[in-house]
């Protein structure tokens, strides 16, 4: 069994997928599953579905809960939706966390990040590929969702993009070069402010023997980041450009250090301690399901570690 949120909201049983009917019911299920088995207060669920809950919100929520139970019943999952009585009430989806694609995706992404930090590019590639295999489309595209809930979808979209970038990094370390260029260009077409992907493009061209292509990629990065978006290029990207001009193969092969955050805001917004092994930051805001370029320096202005051992 697998509850899917990464794309269409549906429930997969063996080889059969069952669609969840009604956008509000899909939004409700998403809000519950993102809490990974915790009870969710009624007030929080209402704020997840409506930016400004109407007077009828509590009544409507009960109706959506009833509809969700009705859809779960034929799959023998009705009892998985548990009601909390008293204290304002609440609900909980009592499922194994690993039966939710979001949880699997985050676990595999974290595994890949860890493997990359200890220079195990092959193992990182396997983890990232498995994580990306769970992704079926924009998160929450078919859900009723408030900005509060949609911001959590955005965090998952950002994590997805980061995993794609890290997969490129792993493959560069494994010696692949020009075959990665279409994937890098696809990332940059969606989000041209990702400096790490510009660095990947320069490295892929150079390590594939196309120095002119690498220099051209630098010129495009300068035009896009600096001239069009008004962002400052990092010292590391400038140094990479100089290394290419000097034909310094060793420096060009070195892992890129000025990464955007591996965890761009928790899917579950709970306090946590900073982890000094990974950079932290905030991804771009979005109002819809797709990522949009934004002229802000948040992605670029990250604390940079040294090249050695960066992942």
UniProtKB/TrEMBL annotation:
Basic and acidic residues bias locations: 273-282
DNA-binding region: 1-95
Superkingdom of the source species: Bacteria
GO process annotations (BP): phosphorelay signal transduction system; regulation of DNA-templated transcription
MF-aspect GO terms: DNA binding
Span of domain OmpR/PhoB-type: 1-95
Chain segments carrying region Disordered: 257-311
Database matches in Gene3D superfamilies: Tetratricopeptide repeat domain, Winged helix-like DNA-binding domain superfamily/Winged helix DNA-binding domain
Keyword annotations: DNA-binding, Transcription, Transcription regulation
Family per similarity comment: Belongs to the AfsR/DnrI/RedD regulatory family.
Record protein name field: DNA-binding SARP family transcriptional activator
UniProt organism field: Thermocatellispora tengchongensis
Lineage of source species: Bacteria, Bacillati, Actinomycetota, Actinomycetes, Streptosporangiales
